[in-house]
Design goal:
Two copies of one chain form a homodimer. By secondary structure, chain A is of the alpha/beta class. Chain A has nine helices and 14 strands. The first copy, chain A, has two domains: 241 residues, Type I PLP-dependent aspartate aminotransferase-like (Major domain) (Aspartate Aminotransferase, domain 2, 3-Layer(aba) Sandwich), CATH 3.40.640.10; 102 residues, Alpha-Beta Complex (Aspartate Aminotransferase, domain 1). Chain A is 34% helix and 16% strand. In chain A, helix 3 crosses helix 4 and helix 7 packs parallel to helix 9. The longest helix of chain A has 22 residues. Chains A and B meet through helix 1, helix 3 and helix 6 of A and helix 1, helix 3 and helix 6 of B.
Amino acid sequence: MRVYNFSAGPAMLPQPVLEQARDDMLDWDGSGMSVMEVSHRGKAFVACAAQAEARMRAVLGVPDNYRVLFLQGGAFGQFAAIPLNLAQAGRPVEFLNTGQWSAKAIAEARRYAPVNVIADEAASKYTRVPASDSFAVDPQAAYLHYTPNETIGGVEFGYVPEVGQVPLVADFSSTILSRPIDVSQYGLIYAGAQKNMGPAGLCVVVVRDDLLGQARPETPSVWDYAKMAKNDSMLNTPPTFGIYLLGLVLQWIADSGGLEAMGERNRAKAETLYSFIDESPFYSNPVAPDSRSWMNVPFLVADADLERTFVSEATAAGLTNLAGHRSVGGMRASIYNAMPIEGVHALINFMKQVERTHG
Amino acid sequence: MRVYNFSAGPAMLPQPVLEQARDDMLDWDGSGMSVMEVSHRGKAFVACAAQAEARMRAVLGVPDNYRVLFLQGGAFGQFAAIPLNLAQAGRPVEFLNTGQWSAKAIAEARRYAPVNVIADEAASKYTRVPASDSFAVDPQAAYLHYTPNETIGGVEFGYVPEVGQVPLVADFSSTILSRPIDVSQYGLIYAGAQKNMGPAGLCVVVVRDDLLGQARPETPSVWDYAKMAKNDSMLNTPPTFGIYLLGLVLQWIADSGGLEAMGERNRAKAETLYSFIDESPFYSNPVAPDSRSWMNVPFLVADADLERTFVSEATAAGLTNLAGHRSVGGMRASIYNAMPIEGVHALINFMKQVERTHG
């Protein structure tokens, strides 16, 4: 029996996608082989990868002057690959620090380039994003990096930072494909697949053409954007099963009405859950209302001793992975694209029941 | 209907493994979730990864003073990661060049360290491995790198190079788990999963303890062996589905009699196919008999114009992916662990039929 899985990532996948993967497992598209068993350079898989890219371009609205790359090493790998590809001698790279993922990206970037953190929400304990007029980017910066959504704190930007001509770089791992964005506002966006796109092990990079070709000599070839772009992401063997699944997920999004419809669904799911929490004296969410994530909803119970009971009883009720991140405790409901509104309703009903029993 | 798939990689997987993956797809181990949907830090997946590592240690015979790492970026990523982790200032790294994969590893290493190629089979057109007494390793070398099996040329070492105290580093991508090896003879072995271990996107590194902790400051964290060892390969999100499948493949090997039995099967498959080729006036294999690969068998037909016909008629007969590598032409049958002897017999019967028709 399928459960409602609130994992922050790897996370719930659309059931029709899993059913297709199951049905294709021994005989993909009449080939007599799994998609995992075919050469990445054969016609069938080259077409599969091209279709995944075409669907990504259509669904996300990727302009023609951007390349879509399918890489390995996760977003954490890109924390190194981005400065290796984009940092310029004598110019700083700048960051907004809004949580643990920003902080990890900053720590890794410092090993390759001088870093300026021009807005830092550590003092607010990462309970909000900085106001849009509270920081200014150095026009000489090689790029500004930010994290549009922080999975642990549950904060999300409601605006796109103003950067002038400086390339804007964004770690979209936990919010990509959750609502429409204007790709042309970014120099580079990247995202690990394991939240809204597919299985762990695939990282998608969307990068503007003019940022290619500046990689430092010591950049590993499999992370050199220009080399990977030239080789259609197949300088080496790509994570073929992940690319295949991404194609299925994108088709599911397109069939579900695209990012406009996905955004409306996600807005409704988030508003429903935050409204319930705000109206309850028993539950609370620490995040400033204008900074709340649509994807990751951390919440506390009035009595912290109840947290373990909450999580274990929820699991027994078919609502899994509700424990907060180990570094912050509490609870967290991650409600990515694949979580239906029915899952949110089931969670709220369960929360009401806990409140009645223990409140 | 399943076919006999002779792809060089990604390659055929054992059918029982694919059946298990199919059956687990929507509900892994009674969890109500796919293994792809669960947190890598949750108890269930941590146990799954630990089991895969334990099986790898048992099947391959990994001594206690070696770490088993599950990384991303493929063997090509390791072409950079190895010099970043192991090269030492003022000391050369040395290579044996036996084919296109050695050559790629050499080209990438040159970007990080001074490289000496101490044996080079380019002159033989990569039709043999160097004689064991034809090269000598500099005792000051940081390591000697070689490629025990070359998928394109179809050459394989029948011996382990003598290195004294110099760490021996080996790209086992296309021969790992195909027969017993003595891990203690190596400083580091690594292998992309997509030939004998599982899906593309997982790279296994087995490294001796004393080689950890020497990474250069600019080593990307996700490829820093010491950091990854300290974090049980979960500094970042690992390729969870690949690790799960690796565990299933290892269980299948153990159930099939382990590497001794696997080696006997692979020897029999290879000897059967090479014997047929050698006895036929119509087919030929260019590799010196003592250097022939058990995994990748390139062959030519007397009339090169027949190659396309051969490949297309083979595909129609359920024998797929028999075209040689695009850089060398001809045909190639890759007969990894998952290829049963029946597949080799079917191939030989088909080859006889082509010879009767066109010979």
